[in-house]
Specification:
The protein has 153 residues and is mainly α. It has one domain. It is 73% helix and 0% strand. Helix 1 runs antiparallel to helix 5. This is Methylamine utilisation protein MauE domain-containing protein. It comes from Fodinibius salipaludis. InterPro entries: Methylamine_util_MauE (IPR009908).
Length: 153
Amino acid sequence: MNKSYLSKAITVIRLLLGILFLISGIGKLISGSDARYLVELLATEFYWLIEYATAIVIATSIIELVLAVFLIWNKFLKWALSGTLAMLISFSSVLSYFYFQGMSVENCGCFGAFGFASGLEFTLLRNLILIALIIIAYLLSTSKPKISDKASI
C-alpha cells in the first residue's frame, strides 16, 4: 500500500475514534446518569459495584478523554489504540452480558448528555465496527511500506 494512503487511513481512523471518545467522555462528565444506571444494573450481580458507581463513571470518562487527546494529537498511537481497544472490549463485554441475560436496556449511556437512545444490539454492532477499525489502524501503523512502494514515493 502506498505510504500516503496508509497515513491517510490511519489519520481518518484515529481522528474518528478520538472525536467519538472525546464526545463520550465530555458527555458522561456532563450527565452520567445512564452510564451510572448500567453500573448499578451490573451491581445486581456484583454488589460491591454499587458503592463505586459514580467513581467508575467519572474514571471511565477521564480515561476516554486522555485516550481521545492522544488519538487526536497522534501521540503514543499504539498505546492509545491498545487502551481504546481494551475499553471497547470491556464495554462490549458488559453490554453482551446484559444482552445474553435478556435484559432490556433502553440507553447504554455511552455518550452521556450527547447520547441518543440506542439499544443493546445497535451499541454492540457499533462497538464491533469500532473494534475492527482499531485493529485495522494498529495493523496499518505497524506495517512497513514495501520496497516497490518506497520507489514510487
